[in-house]
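Ticket opened by: R.M.
Priority: normal
Category: complex prediction / small molecule

The reporter submitted a protein together with nickel (II) ion and asked that the result be attached to this ticket for the collaborator who will pick it up next week. Submitted input follows.
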Amino acid sequence: MPLSNPSAPAPDDRGQCKTIDLGRKVAAIEGFWQPRVVAEMNDYQFKVVKLEGDFVWHAHADTDETFLVLDGELEIDIRGVPSAAPMLSLRAGQMAVVPKGVEHRPRALGEVKVLLIEPRGVVNTGDGVRTERTAQNDRWI
Ligand code: NI
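Result attached by the on-call engineer:
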């Protein structure tokens, strides 16, 4: 985008053109199940989050969702996909993509640190579901 475009956000505003230390970012989060955006790529957001215990069953009708484990061990229960195992087990350095519309329930074994990759505006507890675990969207760290 030309520099003369006044509506163009500064690259730095979206976490771009800089080194992002995921470990440092996620360590600065207080509380669990509170995703924080660290950068955007087109309409997608990269979010770090600390997890502990079981999440709720939910699905996202309009988007796939990527989980990349940074630290710890995350299990994700999967419902209704005959070709998939009913549970994924992810350790640090491993990732999985949950397809849109598929019911899933993340479960953290101890404390787990995760990078989520999904479009801007996705509600963490899924479509039409509001629980005590529903997090405010678009909070940056
Ligand atoms: Ni989800």
